[in-house]
UniProtKB/TrEMBL annotation, chain A:
InterPro entries (alphabetical): WD40/YVTN_repeat-like_dom_sf (IPR015943), WD40_repeat_dom_sf (IPR036322), WD40_rpt (IPR001680), WDR54_beta_prop (IPR049546), WDR55/POC1 (IPR050505)
Official protein name in the record: WD repeat domain 54
Gene3D superfamilies named among the record's database cross-references: YVTN repeat-like/Quinoprotein amine dehydrogenase
Superkingdom classification of source: Eukaryota
Taxonomic lineage of the native organism: Eukaryota, Metazoa, Chordata, Craniata, Vertebrata
GO cellular component, one term: ciliary basal body
Organism: Scleropages formosus (Asian bonytongue)
Pfam families documented for this protein: WDR54
Gene: wdr54
Domain WD repeat-containing protein 54 beta-propeller residue range list: 4-325
UniProtKB/TrEMBL annotation, chain B:
Domain of life, per lineage: Eukaryota
Gene: OSCP1
Annotated stretches, region: Disordered: 345-371
A Gene Ontology cellular-component term: plasma membrane
Organism listed in the record: Scleropages formosus
A Pfam cross-reference name: Oscp1
Upper taxonomic lineage: Eukaryota, Metazoa, Chordata, Craniata, Vertebrata
Full protein name: Organic solute carrier partner 1
Length: 327, 371
């Protein structure tokens, strides 16, 4: 991989799981990045020619007006069929903005939340999880701010750490959503009028910090530094990788190529390739390469495009987003 | 974020403070009985029942301002009086040492072992004083009761909360630089090798299953590091081999003098503190309990300059990058008056002062450093 010019951000990344979100805006040849620092979200938009960067900072809010010092747990884009929303979750509530962060669309108060968000594109909903283990499902209208809480999924007993929706774009897979918690338990769901629990994959008390769902396959990153690949609906373990020497903070999958990206506290980012082998009912995992961000505990690692041609990395106390592209 | 950070924060920072003071007081040939008195007084205050009870209540982290005020008051709960420069340097050293320990902890749960390392050393300091020893033993029990049931995920959240507190703090410490534990830019060195944490495997192995053939396929990949087998589990009991050495009394502080200016400083604009009133209530409660430990107000005080001018070193060879800071503290008049009432009972002259004006001076010194 080649290192590309890194992008400076206004303040350093906080040590939070999955602390980088990327949104590619093809019609405008732009990519947006967000990185959380305490009670502020740093947003950068980068033009594809690498010449123009613009910065914006969003602060957590209470209600829809007052600036707040409450800490932001995560900022990420939710890509829905008709719109994209930037969702911030803080200790006090959830704020949804238009994708460029310019206008707040909705605010929802919560007691003691802790969250990542995920979208299910086909159903126009998105989901929050909170530290009690509950998962909230919201219906999002295609326009406007009439957002409604439609369901609460109560299957986890420990704090939910990450969630992922099926990202292959194909409708042939039964599982739509996987949720992960601090005990390592993975719950696999099917969306519909009501969400239906398909399977529970036990965790053996090893915290799962990051999870992805691709072609009916779950990739999960754990506190022990292991990555495990499961068949979503049955929970069968396809593969186990002793991937990192420290806690994994971030996983990402490039859906068009089957590349898997992992970033951990050991300062390493690793790129893997997943090959589905339906005849043998197996998933092969191959290590492609690793990059070291010297003396930095990685907290966010994301592909910048669906092929995995480029990826970006953030680290604790680092005030830049480091980017790599294929040579 | 975690509501259980305060006991770990103050016990570990307090522990580092004691290591530094012990080292520096001995290095400056302060008589042993005075050093012991200083150490005993600080330990007695830190482990006092009301103070610990307050800390152990589940609550958000204090603001940096409050943390610092409490630690300064703790340092001055003994007969020792530090001038402003010494206090600043002591605070910088303590904080960077603990930041290092939090960052380098192999597993989040090992943060508790780091705490026990500090506690073990503190216990040794007061082993001859049964009353204080008893307080320390009770705190051990409280730590075991509250923290051992927490899951790994909860410990990681606790660690992340502490890391947020120390974010962007990159003051270079000469001893860390010399031992190559810190780089010239102020970042701590993360080694790509050594033992993996307890419960982890050495990276390098991929295993996948071909279900239809019923066989397991193994591949190796280059880990990029020199890792070796996991550490054994340390003891989470009242005593025992903790295994982890972070938090033990390393002799780094013998020559430790941070450069006179922080090289990479924080970008911090302190917005009007919405929680100021609640924090002040807490602070007054805490410091009120500290003040009650001090019945004898007619003691004479021992002034110490911890870090002498001779010891300042130069780092001309390092490539430095400067970021100039703008720190703006919102002047909260009410907060100033309230803090003036609570903190700074004693001035640098070493006499208890009853005039409001000198209490204000002490406070203003504290507030000035936020400017």
């Amino acid at each position: 991989m080649n290192g590309e010019k890194s992008i400076q951000i206004k303040s350093s990344a906080s040590a939070l799981y999955n602390n980088l979100s990327v949104l590619r805006i093809a019609p405008r040849c732009l990519t947006y990045f967000t990185v959380v620092h305490a009670n502020v979200v740093n947003m950068v938009s980068a033009s594809w020619d690498g010449l123009n960067f613009s910065h914006r900072q969003l602060q957590s809010k209470e209600g829809n007006i007052a600036a707040s010092s409450s800490l932001i747990m995560q900022a990420s884009w939710c890509v829905l069929p008709s719109r994209e929303l930037l969702v911030l979750t803080s200790q006090k509530g959830i704020q949804m903005y238009e994708s460029d962060g310019s206008i707040m669309v909705y605010w929802h108060a919560l007691d003691n939340p802790e969250t990542p968000t995920v979208t299910l594109p086909k159903t126009q909903t998105f989901i929050e999880r909170i530290s009690s283990g509950s998962v909230l499902v919201f219906d999002i209208p295609s326009k406007g701010s009439n957002v409604m809480l439609s369901e609460v999924l109560e299957e986890h007993r420990d704090a939910v750490t990450d969630m992922a929706s099926e990202c292959s774009g194909s409708l042939e897979y039964m599982a739509d959503l996987v949720t992960a918690d601090d005990s390592g338990l993975l719950c696999v769901w099917k969306s519909g009028e009501d969400f239906q629990l398909l399977h529970k994959i036990p965790g053996f008390d090893v915290s799962c910090s990051s999870v992805k769902l691709w072609k009916g396959t779950v990739a999960a990153g754990y506190g022990t530094g292991q990555i495990r690949i499961y068949e979503a609906v049955t929970g069968i373990v396809h593969a186990e990788v002793n991937a990192h020497a420290r806690w994994i903070y971030s996983l990402d999958i490039a859906p068009f190529s089957g590349l898997l990206l992992s970033g951990a506290e050991d300062s390493l980012v690793r790129v893997w390739h997943l090959t589905m082998n339906p005849d043998a009912n197996s998933v092969e995992v191959e290590h492609l390469y690793s990059e070291c961000i010297t003396d930095t505990q990685i907290c966010g690692a994301k592909f910048c495009d669906g092929d995995g041609y480029a990826f970006a990395v953030t680290g604790y106390d680092l005030s830049e987003i480091i980017r790599y592209t294929q040579a | 974020m975690s509501m259980r950070t305060l006991p770990l924060l103050f016990i570990n920072l307090g522990g580092e403070m004691l290591y530094i003071l012990d080292q520096r007081l001995q290095a400056q040939n302060v008589p042993t009985e005075k050093t012991s008195k200083v150490m005993n007084d600080i330990i007695c205050t830190l482990f006092s029942k009301p103070f610990m009870e307050e800390l152990f209540k589940p609550q958000d982290m204090y603001s940096k301002r409050t943390q610092r005020a409490v630690l300064i008051r703790l340092a001055h709960s003994s007969i020792m009086r530090l001038n402003q420069a010494s206090m600043d340097k002591l605070y910088d050293l303590m904080t960077m040492a603990f930041k290092y320990q939090v960052l380098l902890c192999p597993r989040p749960r090992d943060l508790l072992l780091v705490t026990f390392n500090h506690m073990d050393a503190i216990r040794a300091f007061v082993s001859d004083t049964p009353a204080i020893l008893n307080q320390v033993e009770e705190t051990y029990q409280q730590l075991i009761k509250v923290y051992t049931p927490l899951s790994d995920g909860e410990f990681q959240l606790l660690r992340q909360t502490l890391l947020m507190c120390f974010q962007d703090l990159q003051i270079r410490v000469s001893a860390f630089l010399k031992d190559k534990v810190q780089t010239c830019s102020g970042r701590f060195v993360l080694p790509l090798g050594g033992p993996v944490p307890c419960g982890s495997e050495v990276p390098g192995l991929i295993r996948y299953w071909e279900a239809c053939r019923g066989q397991e396929v193994c591949h190796l990949f280059p880990s990029g590091g020199a890792y070796c087998g996991a550490l054994p589990e340390g003891s989470f009991h009242m005593s025992g081999d903790r295994v982890i050495t972070l938090g033990t009394n390393i002799s780094v502080y013998s020559a430790a003098v941070p450069p006179s200016k922080p090289i990479l400083a924080l970008q911090m604009s302190i917005a009007p503190n919405l929680l100021a009133k609640e924090e002040l209530t807490l602070l007054s409660h805490l410091l009120g309990s500290l003040e009650n430990q001090d019945p004898d107000k007619t003691r004479t005080f021992y002034r110490v300059n911890l870090f002498t001018v001779d010891m300042e070193e130069e780092y001309g060879n390092c490539e430095l990058s400067f970021q100039v800071l703008n720190i703006q503290a919102a002047k909260d008049q009410q907060a100033e008056e309230e803090l003036a009432r609570i903190v700074g009972e004693f001035t640098e002259k070493g006499e208890p002062s009853s005039s409001p004006r000198s209490k204000g001076d002490d406070l203003l010194t504290l507030m000035d450093e936020l400017q």
